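Worked problem 6 (solution included).
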Amino acid sequence: MREEWQKMEEEWLAPWAARSRESKGRLRPEAECPVRTCYQRDRDRIIHTKAFRRLMHKAQVFLHPQSEHFRTRLTHTLELAQIARTAARALHLNEDLTEAIAMGHDLGHTPFGHAGERALAELYPGFAHNKHSLRIVDHLEKDNRGLNLSFEVRDGILNHSGDQGIPQTLEGKLVRLCDRVAYLNHDIDDAIRAGLIRQQALPPAAMFFGESQSERINAMVLDLVDNSRNQPLIQMSPAAAEALTELRRFMFDAVYLNPQKLAEEQQARQIIRDLYAYYLENPHLLPPEHTQYPLQTSVVDYIAGMTDKFAIEHYLSIFPEKRLSL
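Solution. The predicted structure is:
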């Protein structure tokens, strides 16, 4: 079955797409699966991790929403995977590699979204969720044995965000761009639901793509496909790329840096800082699975893996005198 899949890849995929037969391999050699290609196997390994399951209780933008209709890191991941796979299919790229990268890209996100990430980066310089996602799949999952993923999936996970690197595959580049398409659109939807912004207040950059979320996503994907088809590039038209950048700038001003959100994030950052200091002073209270690395690293691994709910409840059990509005 795997060989049949690989033959279909040869017939279907664009010349510049990643082929599972040509993967650069895993950190540790292992026998091939008789049914699944290496990328299909990697996707399955990611989905079955504890880190993936915890994403359902980690915030996307709104830290403690009163409605269950707000996105979490898990629903963001699923929306991204759907968007990226649709584009990959249209471009004759490897859908399995695309999906595996999308499923694993945010495994390393901390509790409380980017607020928690910034707090840990202040305490532990160099921390970033994309780097921690790679650390999870390389080391922390499966009782500190890691998942032993293929090079291309690991590369896409590490380089899906930030300025330090660009994915080596077109599939990784596609996930990187579709991540922005996904989060900008669903964050707009959630911000309207939360009352932070109104539909009528959206900038011309949003209207450039359409009036509704589905119209905007469809327009962005069609533009991406039209401007990347039949060439080894992942790109949007100059006008669409500029509109996407303007829309992102609007979201930072109106939503991500909104005073209401920042007040909420201050409490989240305080939780992270206090937990970090507490475990540095009480390393004997760390769970046994988080004692195999240097102390600071172990503390960061433990805190970064917490869900929002667990972090809040754990914090209040340690500091019962504290009062939170989260």
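Discussion: The chain has a mean pLDDT of 95.
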